[in-house]
Automatic annotation (TrEMBL):
Gene3D superfamilies: Tetracycline Repressor, domain 2 (1.10.357.10). Coiled coil: none annotated. Transmembrane segments: none annotated. This is HTH tetR-type domain-containing protein. SUPFAM superfamilies: Homeodomain-like. Residues 8-69 form the HTH tetR-type domain. GO terms for molecular function: DNA binding. It comes from Johnsonella ignava ATCC 51276. Keywords: DNA-binding. The keyword DNA-binding applies. Residues 32-51 bind DNA. Pfam families: TetR_N.
Length: 224
């Protein structure tokens, strides 16, 4: 693995190994040397050439995830639909996407780590909400969303907060039934601010997705 000749492959390998170690050992339990040991000959100096710290690696992983799952780009695959329908279609696709589902389930335990959670929150509210702002603006123009134009940024952040963080099933010691009730509340809040995105079909899929998290956690021998 030649650092200078194929830098993009080196970066990809570092991120791949780091992600696997973070998931299997826990973010706080991984040190840079652990990552180096799994890189097949890459020196610590070479790793530091690309990433100055473990936190820089984590940030790059978040950015990679955001790029791969860019909701604006994914929504553009449905040019025949209005924005509200595009967003629903993207969420339906996500529920059926095995790679996305595996990523979400694998990283769920990491959210309990304060450092990881802080970065996840910052990443979500800055990068994901920014993408959603673009769709809200387009949805206001095509009439499928009725968000007050004065509060586009705040509405995008609230949507992100509710769907990416508040619905995380392991933040609080709650039963599946309690989590399912939250989905009803999310629908009420989104409808109230002009984001009618949780119809009957969407809610059914979100509930099913939530059940998968609980089943995965049961297999680990934990209670969510």
């Amino acid at each position: 693995m030649a650092r200078n000749k194929y830098p993009e492959k080196t970066v990809e390998k570092i991120l791949e190994v780091s992600y696997r170690l973070f998931v299997t050992k826990g973010y706080e339990n991984v040190v840079i040397q652990d990552i180096v040991n799994e890189l097949g000959g890459l020196t610590k100096g070479a790793l530091y050439h690309h990433f100055k710290s473990k936190e820089a690696i984590l940030k790059a992983l978040f950015e990679k995830m955001c790029s791969e799952h860019n909701i604006v780009e994914r929504a553009a695959k449905y040019p025949e639909l209005n924005v509200a329908e595009k967003i629903k279609a993207v969420y339906m696709d996500s529920c059926y996407d095995e790679k996305i589902r595996e990523f979400d389930i694998d990283t769920l335990p990491l959210v309990l780590n304060p450092h990881f959670f802080a970065n996840f929150y910052k990443f979500s509210m800055k990068m994901c909400a920014k993408q959603f702002m673009i769709l809200i603006e387009e949805g206001i123009k095509d009439g499928s969303l009725s968000v007050d134009p004065l509060y586009i940024k705040e509405s995008a952040e609230l949507f992100t907060l509710l769907t990416k963080i508040w619905l995380l099933p392991n933040l609080l010691d709650e039963s599946l039934e309690e989590q399912q009730k939250k989905i009803d509340v999310v629908k009420m809040v989104l409808d109230a601010i002009g984001l009618p995105l949780f119809d009957e079909k969407t809610m059914y899929m979100v509930r099913h997705y939530m059940e998968l998290f609980y089943k995965a956690d049961e297999k680990r021998g934990n209670t969510v």
